[in-house]
Amino acid sequence: MKRENSNSQVKTRKRKRTSSETETIEMSKEFNLKKDLSNKQILECISAIFHLIQEQLKETNNLLVEEARPIFIQVTSVRIPEMPRRQMRILLPYSIVAANDEVALFVCDLEKGRRKDYEPTVEYYKNLLDKHGCTRVNEIIPINRVKTYDHFLVDGRIAGHMSHLLGKIFSKRRKLPTSVRMESKDLKHEIDYALRKTSMQLHSHGDTHLIQVGNTCMKKKRLLKNVLTVCEELSKNYPGGWTNIRALRLKGPNSLALPFYMTLKNKNTVDPNTIAVQPKRPKAYRDVEGELSTFISNTTVTVKPEGTVILKKEQTNQKKSSKKKLKSSKKAKN
């Protein structure tokens, strides 16, 4: 009798533990901008990063001390996300593009063909930008001058083709172009809107991701707002949400990373299902159904995207009527 009681006590204890774990998971999912982050601490990190970058430039005798240097947030996850490589774009209150940064715009060709002259295309889009008062785009350029620019925009109609054409160098340097709706009536607004976006490359090769939030030429309060906007967006769209964020640090291109948020939470508080992101499927990725009339009549075939084939034979009207007669005759006999 004593052994039975002890076993029941152990079971109740285990049940209590599991219920508390689920409570901690639910509580940790909630993100509160004011409670979880300190504006004062973030501003101190920003000031320290500014100082570190300036000191590094002086030590290397860099003449371009006042040139804008990018500032990043380094995101460290609790559990490594399980997902294919993709870009996460975030709209910021203030643009990360500095005043002296070069901005290029990729556009559609007016005439298709490899040997067609591109000058009429360049002139057409220059006139279009002037008409809408767009002064932020420096150049509409051919591919062989791509390396000289800091930020890239692309006509939304060809945005899907650019990532594989530009290659790995663009994705590694976080220079993939941002799409713009060139057919918009307010083109200036579209370009300004696109230049306020920043992107973070999500992957499953490690627990650290990097995203640019500003530069050294920005005012500290504007940079603070960008940091808070990114944090709020991470709490919603980062794999696993705020629960899966171990630490957030500010850093320059070659400076130390200064933390402004850290947690010592256990990996068990993160639900493994929330960090698994399925790859985006194209519109054509769906079941295909049709009638199979080659060998078997009155048969439909369904082919699934992974290659599974399902055959379904439909009953003819004669067979259906004969079955109904058999059922009615059986009822009459009974």
UniProtKB/TrEMBL annotation:
Compositional bias (Polar residues): 1-10
One Pfam entry name: Ribosomal_L1
Annotated InterPro entries: Ribosomal_uL1-like (IPR023674), Ribosomal_uL1/biogenesis (IPR028364), Ribosomal_uL1_3-a/b-sand (IPR016095)
Biased composition (Basic residues): 320-334
Ranges where the record places region Disordered: 1-24, 312-334
Domain of life: Eukaryota
Segments passing through the bilayer: none
Name this protein carries in UniProt: Ribosomal L1 domain-containing protein 1
Organism of origin: Trachymyrmex septentrionalis
Lineage of the organism: Eukaryota, Metazoa, Ecdysozoa, Arthropoda, Hexapoda
